[in-house]
Amino acid sequence: MNIFVGNLAPETTEVQLTDLFKAFGQVKSVQVMREMFSGASKGFGFVEMPGKAHSLSAIAALDGKDLNGKPLRVNEAMARGSGMRHR
Q1: Domain boundaries along the sequence of the chain
Q2: Which residues form the RRM domain (predicted)?
Q3: Which pLDDT tens digits describe the chain residue by residue (87 residues)?
C-alpha cells in the first residue's frame, strides 16, 4: 500500500521515515519529494509498505504524530495518472 506523508519538516530524511514506519512492518520504499534544482524538501513524501494491515496500523498510529517539531499528516495515497496523490 502506498502511504502519503505530509507536513514534513524540511530536515526530515528518508531514513527517519523508514525508521518510523518499520515499527509497523516491512517498508518497501520511502521517498521525500524534493525541488528539482535546489533539492529542498517539498514537505511531503510517500512510503510503500507491502501489507495492507500493517499499512493501516501505521496510518492510524502516525497521523498527527510529531516528527521534527511538526505533526505528520498520514493517509492512503491514491493513484492519479502516473503520479500519486493523497486522499
Answers
A1: 2-78
A2: 1-79
A3: 999 999 999 999 999 999 999 999 999 999 999 999 999 999 999 999 998 999 999 999 999 999 999 999 999 998 765 454 555
- Residues contacting 72, CB < 8 A, separation 6+: 5, 6, 7, 8, 62, 63, 64, 65, 66
The sign of the torsion formed by the CA atoms of 22, 60, 57, 82 equals negative
Q: What is the pTM of this model?
A: 0.88
Residue 87 burial class via C-beta count within 10 angstroms: exposed 0-12, middle 13-18, buried 19 and up: exposed
Grid cell in block for residue 10: 524540511
One-letter amino acid for residue 58 of the chain: A
Beta bridge partners of 13: none
